[in-house]
Amino acid sequence: MEIASGITLSALSQQILVGLSRTTILFIVSSGLSLVLGVLRIPNVAHGSLYMIGAFLSYTIATSVGGGSYGFWLALILAPLGVALISLVVERGLFCHLYEREHLMLLLFTFSLMLLFKDLVKLVWGSDYRSFSAPDILQGSFSILGLPFPRYNLFLLIVGPLVAIGLWLLTNKTKIGKISRAAAVDREMVGAVGINVSLVFAFVFIIGCSLAGLGGALVAPTQNINQGMDHTIIMEAFLIVIIGGLGNIWGALLGALIFGLTDAIGILVWPQFAIIFPYLAVVTVLMFRPKGLLRATW
After folding, report:
1. Is residue 254 a part of any domain in this protein?
2. 9-40 helix and 197-219 helix, angle to the nearest 10 degrees
3. Which mean pLDDT values do the consecutive 10-residue runs of the chain (298 residues) have?
4. What gap in Å lies between CA 297 and CA 187, rounded to an integer?
5. Structural domain containing residue 295
6. Where does residue 264 rank: exposed (0-12), middle (13-18), buried (19+ CB within 10 A)?
7. Cα–Cα dist 233/204, whole Å
8. Within a domain: residue 160?
9. Dihedral through CA 244, CA 249, CA 253, CA 256, nearest 10?
């Protein structure tokens, strides 16, 4: 059944499923950026570099144990933890002394961190592209409504909602999450009641950065791992956070859905210029909702 010239309903459905799986990566990375931006008020330009480091770490971990199923699952656990450790060193060593500085100062500082991480990645892993495969259980495809769909994409569709639910539980049902939300609104008042705001900020920063590492670990089996992968993701993540609402986790999910689906549909409708479809969607949203689709925490 054709719904437009050369486009069938089955092809559209399949492309939407592919777009939803890409939405998972975009949401995981953007939610970490949104969390840090909403609570710490830090526009962390180096967030994309941590995503890249997560991908390279997952490659190193997976290949060092011989690849296969064990290597992949071990990398999926240890790569975000490795990024979390890096972020802990950066936050305790540097960021904790800069929270009272102007946003422009923080922006320039994270930009310098991005350049530093880029050189460190080149020093450790070199300039060559790296890649490794998903475990056998996640390779191949199966049929959904008569359409072939990669198993790994289905895995991503499962991980995305789990991360969203986990973030919701963390921010709404735990003491540290509630304190973080309060600090996002009025950090001076939180400090006035005797809570160590600096430690709260450290916790939020580490969680946000580890989500970037998780996104890198998840995307690693699907594409070549290279030094330029941080540039595209950070630009997309910032746009998603802006259209969703600054600091709003559910806004990040909504923005990722818009970005991922318009990109997937653009590939189907006009592949030569598919890259412009998500940005047209961003412009359209901001024309009617300049502050984002959902309430910003700023």
Report:
1. yes
2. 160
3. 60 83 94 90 92 96 83 94 96 85 85 94 92 89 78 93 92 88 81 86 94 96 92 94 89 93 88 88 92 79
4. 13
5. 228-298
6. buried
7. 21
8. no
9. 60
